[in-house]
Specification:
The chain is of the alpha+beta class and 372 residues long. The protein has 12 helices and 15 strands. Strand 11 and strand 12 form a beta hairpin. It is globular.
Length: 372
């Protein structure tokens, strides 16, 4: 059965997303308003009865001085990735994007290929058995995801030599997730390691109070975020970015973005943002002060977000990106170490894939990006 692709309205796009149990927060129409430096378009696949059966948010980034674009579908599109006839989805998409002036297409199929449970990772770290997640036998894998990767390769889609490990991709290939479905909150807390449970209790005894904030509290979050950026050596986004994000996302759905702040004796010590689409909840941005870390505001705020995710009907609490390193000497090791304490799972996605519609311009972009 063939599929037809056309530009769809925001309303059509959002209505389709609402029929899905899960879709990336980067594949909702309002994400295009957050990424205002890109031109955006919602595209939809229709079956023979004119029913919308797939959708995607495309971000177009223009090449300097040329009316040619990189077309990017972050963590998308939302289609049937396990359809054996993948061409009926991707061929019309490529033809459409080429007609829009795209010279290259980048997409990130939202398909998990492997999962490792926290005990497996902890045992590997303790025993020094492996330096990387990929060296470990997974606790679960999806055979159809391997078939998908093979189909993409055969169709001319390209992936980096290392398969996009760690932070090489625009979006992380490895993430850490805490399953909430078919578990009680007691089950979730029992999955925490001793340090996490102790830190949550310490925060409670110390009088750390976690509150849900609003638009006016973004300035408090941003001050802590700038402190965090200085400490962790990254370039912070301006306050206006978060204000724009709040306005765009909450206009679409009041629970799409939430802000949490952890106070101790009236002083803000940590702050986080949380994003929700359907049953999938993400810890998005985190920030913390350099002092009073002994009262453990970061553990308190995470536990509050997990409880609220559960109350919202979430099936996954997603702590987002990790490196795949298990090497304690690696500067990125602390990320996985903190997140493994939640008792969740490391998940590997099939990664991001590129299709060069114009090989010369695509190669020029590759060279430019490698020099940045």
């Amino acid at each position: 059965m063939s599929l037809r692709l056309r530009t769809i309205t925001r309303e059509e796009h959002l209505a389709f997303i609402r029929t899905r149990p899960s879709a990336s927060h980067m594949q909702v129409p309002s994400w295009g308003d957050v990424k205002s430096e890109w031109r955006t378009e919602s595209i939809g696949w229709l079956d023979e009865s004119d029913q919308l059966v797939g959708a995607g948010l495309v971000l177009y980034r223009q090449l300097p001085k040329l009316k040619r674009y990189l077309a990017y579908l972050p963590e998308g599109p939302v289609i049937d990735w396990f359809d054996r006839d993948l061409g009926r989805w991707l061929d019309p998409m490529l033809a459409h994007l080429k007609s829009q002036g795209a010279f290259s297409v980048k997409m990130g199929p939202p398909v998990v290929i492997r999962r490792w449970n926290a005990p497996t990772i902890k045992e590997a770290i303790a025993g020094g058995q492996a330096k990387r997640l990929r060296d470990l036998e997974p606790d679960w894998y999806e055979p159809r995801a391997f078939e998908l990767a093979e189909r993409l390769r055969k169709s001319g889609w390209l992936q980096g030599e290392d398969g996009g490990a760690g932070f090489g991709d625009v979006q992380p290939r490895y993430v850490f997730q805490v399953p909430l479905a078919n578990r009680s909150l007691d089950d979730v807390q029992k999955g925490f390691n001793q340090l996490w449970r102790r830190n949550i209790k310490k925060a409670e005894k110390s009088g750390v109070e976690v509150v849900q904030g609003g638009y006016e509290d973004l300035a408090v979050f941003h001050k802590l975020y700038v402190v965090t950026a200085e400490r962790d050596h990254f370039t912070p986004r301006p306050l206006s970015y978060f204000q724009q994000m709040w306005t765009a996302l909450t206009a679409e759905d009041p629970n799409r973005m939430r802000l949490y702040l952890a106070y101790h004796e009236g002083e803000p010590l940590a702050a986080t943002t949380m994003l929700t689409v359907g049953e999938h909840v993400w810890y998005s941005y985190g920030a913390s002060a350099n002092h009073k870390r002994e009262v453990k505001p970061s553990n308190a705020i995470q536990w509050r977000m997990m409880r609220d995710s559960y109350a919202l009907g979430g099936s996954i609490y997603d702590l987002r990106g990790i490196s795949d390193t298990l090497d304690e000497d690696d500067h990125l090791f602390g990320l996985i170490q903190f997140k493994v304490g939640t008792g969740g799972q490391a998940a590997e996605y099939v990664g991001e894939w590129d299709f060069p519609l114009n090989k010369l311009l695509h190669k020029a972009l590759d060279i430019y990006m490698s020099r940045r």
